[in-house]
Amino acid sequence: MSDEFLKLLAESQHTLDQGFAHLPPNPETSLGEAASNILHQVATRLHDNYPYAHPLYAGQMLKPPHPIARAAYALAMSVNPNNHALDGGRASSAMEIEAIAALAKMFHWPQHLGHLSSGGTFANLEALWVAGQLTYTEDGTPKAVAASDQAHYTHSRISGVLGLPFISIPSDADGCMDLAILEALLATGTIGTVVVTLGTTAIGSVDPLDQIVALQQKYEFRIHVDAAYGGYFTLAANLSSKTRAAFEAIPHADSIVIDPHKHGLQPYGCGCILFRDPAVGRLYKHDSPYTYFSSKDLHLGEISLECSRAGASAVALWATQQLLPYTPGGAFAQGLEFGHTAAMKLHQHLKESPHFIPSVSPPQLDIVVWAVRATTPEASSALAQRIFDEAAKRDLHLALAKLPTRFFPQNSWKNLHEPDQQTTVTCLRSVLMKPEHLLWLDQISQRLDAAAVAAIGSIPR
Question: Which residue, 57, 184, 195, 407, could crosslink 147 as a Cys pair with Cβ 3.0–4.6 Å?
């Protein structure tokens, strides 16, 4: 942590403290030597982590929060606001409302209802909870929720919790929802909500939202967009025309989930749920005999299933938005574009490598997946594990994923000539979500190639 960061935090803390200086002194808790020793132990134990903030960590979806988000969060924690009710977080609730409005504006929604949440799981739960109350048959039976087989597993679990039928729609070789199968099921009238994923967690695939919106003109159903991972890419100017078309259809969705703690440079946990129609707020209606009396203004707890929530998350997001606004072509948008460019460059490097089999589909966002050349998927999977280990020895940290072999070119493996929905292969996966990944791509490629030579040389292929 830089001296500048600590200085700015101390100066801001002094400004905050001055706002309460008129109160009688309150003795501060002394930390002392025992606390110092404990914190040194904490720091030492935290060495047992991957270097998530470094560009050589190119594995899971872990992006360091921006320094201003860290500072604003720490500053707010000296107040420890709770954004459930205005009694617990007046300033932070106002900041949350403003931050939510900035997200809605980014998606070109002139009106909205929404709030922050602890993460994408709870935000998606609220979206499907609302959908379940609005989509049912004439006899009152809830209609089904449908999502791609590459959608996050949380949707099937949430549907089970809510008592909603769930239908998994097969995906194509690009990892996108199969629209022919979807339309056949929509024609039966059993589907009430279609979950459209803009950025799957496995390969970053983007469902064709624009074409699903067109289906909504023929069949009656709600569209919920799970953009927990990929939502911010609506600002990126370098996406393919197919991917861009999906993002441009977002204004027609009924609800959207986005996670600022992924691409939004925020600490965990900071998710967000947005509804296009503010009238769905009626579904949250409840009463509390002790909570909603300090103001006639809307309390965020009145439009949320969660109760206590960290107001510090709202403060950190608001501060980051002031420094890095959601402007096309701005610094924040450029960071997303750098990630996509890095992914495309790595994909091209993999195509030219004698060791690897890149996916059929080029990266739609910033996630790259590739298998290892071998005679069978089983042998390829074993090599992927070995390369993963060898890369870590070279301080390059990747991820592993078990994916359908149909995501890779036909004839990639002997005796496996036709796409198979069931056959899987363990492959390597990289999430290039840090803007710095583009500058470090040569280092990443060199270490990956060295790891492949070390691994393949030690296992018969």
Answer: 195
Q: Identify which of 277, 286, 282 has the alpha carbon closest to the alpha carbon of residue 306.
A: 286
In which band, very low, low, confident or very high, does the pLDDT at 422 lie, cut at 50, 70 and 90?
Answer: confident
Q: How far apart are CA 135 and CA 137, in angstroms?
A: 7
Lowest-confidence range among 23-37, 239-253, 355-369, 399-413? Answer: 23-37
- CA-CA distance, 162 to 295, in Å (whole number)? 32
For 216, phi and psi rounded to 5 degrees? -65, -20
Spatial CB neighbours of 318, under 8 Å, sequence gap ≥ 6: 72, 95, 96, 98, 99
Question: Nearest-CA neighbor of 144 among 199, 182, 113?
Answer: 182
Total residues belonging to the chain? 461
The pLDDT value recorded for residue 300 is 79
The sheet carrying 356-358 orders its strands as 356-358, 367-372, 424-431, 399-404
Contact 201, 152 (CB under 8 A): yes
CA 171 to chain centre: 20
Amino acid at 193: T
Q: What's the CA gap between 407 and 391, in Å, rounded?
A: 23
> How far are the Cα atoms of 65, 244, 325, 343 from residue 431, in angstroms, in the given order?
16, 20, 24, 8
- Output the six-digit token pair for 10: 């101390």
